[in-house]
Amino acid sequence: MKSKLLFASLAIASLTFSAMPAAAQKSGTSTEIRSVYTDDDETTLNFSRDDHKYKIRMTGNKITEMFRDGVKVAPEDYSKYESLINEVLIEVKKQQEEAEKMRKEAEVQRKQAEKQRFEAEKQREEAEVQRKQAAVFRAEADKQREQASKQRFEAEKQRKDADKMRLEAEQQRKKADEFRAEAEMQRKEAEKQRAEAEIQRKEAEKNRALMEKMLDEIVTEKIADSRDELKTIVLDDKEFVVNGVKQSDKLHSQFKAKYLKGKQIRYERNDSFRRISMD
Question: In Å, what is the CA distance from 120 to each residue of 108, 133, 152?
Fold first, then answer.
């Protein structure tokens, strides 16, 4: 069965999105996008769906690795999750487009506010010139007093209009600042999510490498003839059990000192899955 999945046309920018609740595509389902990190053509996607956690690595449109609740999914089973992954990627693109739309709208409003502020200042200056001219006309002749009074009234009206426009421009500027602040907050939250995802990825890699080393040593110590024979392992502070057989105190102490970093290590394997937990 092919593991390559072809998705709808979708461009993911090289950044991490903040985790937001995604609208469920099917009745009765709930999806939460935890993090999406893209570097060149490599994408790592973390999300939850109906109490299950998923982690998927992709190169382009091809899945290279997939985990469900911490359990690695076999490549031949990737096609079972094609619809789910498509839904999540579409939601990620939607969130990206909404953020870009808000940024562009804020920029347009900022430019409009700047233009209105310039026009209001220009009108205020023109009103001031007209007011001075009206005063000169009034001093020069009583004959022109009526005309000057009319111009003064008009100048005052223009000044008020200019003040009104200046107030509106200030309100637009404040709104643009609010949009800008919101965008910055979302950027910082996205960066935080990316850093947390990176820490989790490194910890998972470290635990996986430690478990692989432990499995090799079990075979080296002849506890099992090969790794294929290892079905269950339990290692905690009290005992060391392999395939249901409790090991000696010496082996318990040896493996506990090397591999037990928390309270317990559990390993389960059969023909369809392999589960590792390190609490």
Answer: 18, 20, 19
pLDDT digits (tens, 9 = 90+) for 225-236: 999 999 999 999
Q: Are strands 274-278 and 264-269 parallel, antiparallel or unpaired?
A: antiparallel
Write the single-letter amino acid at 99: A
DSSP 167-232: HHHHHHHHHHHHHHHHHHHHHHHHHHHHHHHHHHHHHHHHHHHHHHHHHHHHHHTTSSSSGGG--E
Q: Is 6 exposed, middle or buried (0-12, 13-18, 19+ CB in 10 A)?
A: exposed
Which is more confidently placed, 30 or 212? 212
Task: Give domain limits for the chain.
Answer: 21-94, 97-206, 221-278
d(CA 232, CA 238): 17
| Tokens 């709104």 found at | 175
Task: State the Cα–Cα distance between residues 196 and 16, nearest whole angstrom.
Answer: 11
Tens digit of pLDDT for each residue in 22-64?
Answer: 444 444 567 888 888 888 789 898 999 989 999 999 998 889 9
Q: What is the pLDDT of residues 55-110, one digit of tens each?
A: 999 998 889 999 999 999 999 999 988 888 888 888 878 887 988 999 999 999 99
What CA–CA distance (Å, rounded) separates 265 from 218?
14
Identify the DSSP state of 244: T
Are the C-beta atoms of 44 and 56 separated by less than 8 Å? yes
Asked if residues 19 and 32 have their Cβ atoms less than 8 Å apart, the reply is: yes
